[in-house]
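Entry 12.
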Amino acid sequence: MKRKEHLETIKDRSATILKYATLISLSIIVIIPIIPVFFGSFKTNTEFYDTSAWAPPESFLNFENYRVAFTDGNMLLGFFNTFIIMVVSIVVSVLIGAMTAYVLQRFRFPGRNAVTYLFLFAALIPAITLNIAIFSLMTWIARNFGIQLINTRWSAIILFAGTDIITVYIFMQFLKHIPVSIDESAIIDGAGYFKIFFRIIMPLMAPAITTVAILKFVAIYNDFYIPMLYMPAEDLAVISTALEKFRGPFGSQWEVICAGQMITILPILILFIFLQKYIYRGLLMGAVKE
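Predicted 3D structure (tokens):
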């Protein structure tokens, strides 16, 4: 009996060691690429090219690169444009995703499974391969209907606001934990489906909405291709494209770009630290059968 307990103790300790070793290894893999960027953000142009990328700067009090990146890179405008696009896109995406998940989870109708499979199929198509068709469609709309989408924030908002299978899946998994009897009781009391959804279901899905909003925030914040392609105007630069002006064919100010990257990393790092429990809760919701 003691031998068995001893073996179980060794097994538990080994599992714990393996778990923490894996977490530490993954953390190192993530942190290592950031170290040269952090060091480079404090170096002068000469120091950046004359020293190793892994060599610490002569002074960590040289904030000139941060000043140049923020002012000359017009990062304040980038943050503003990103915020506008992000707020509208997240609100629309959450609303469409939650309504889609509610219909697929609560109702039984012909073609229900086909709709779910179409979402899965769309997730398998690389989004970048569709941009020629999307760009042509926006050009066609402008030419035939006079609605200019390219070089406006609306182009990015429309593309970011579209829901995806991850959003629908998170909401569907969360809806499994909301009893159908709540809907039935509300129907008996005379409530319609729209009233049930907005007055009862949406407030109960607050944790899932928070999770989806955070994931959408990260995706929009980090996206470079859509703003670069559909919003090339300088006054429409977002935070991911604001630093593009420091890179050119005749030389790049990499030390300034490093400083700008550190500025862009800080908000999303703070957000993740404070809201990580909501991300994990939403992603794991429904993963374990009760």
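Annotation: The chain has 14 helices and two strands. The chain has one domain: 63-284.
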